Amino acid sequence: MSRDARWKALLELLVERGRLDVEEAAAELAVSAATIRRDFDQLAEQQMLIRTRGGAVVHGVSYELPLRYKTARHASEKQRIAKAVADLIAPGEAVGLTGGTTTTEVARALAVRSDLATGSPALTVVTNALNIANELAVRPQFKIVVTGGVARAQSYELIGPLADGVLSQITLDVAVLGVVALDVVHGAAAHDEAEASINRLLCERAERVVVAADSSKLGRRAFARICAAETVDTLVTDTAVDEHTVRRFEEAGVGVLAV
Question: Is the peptide bond before 121 cis (omega within 30 degrees of 0)?
Answer without folding.
Answer: yes
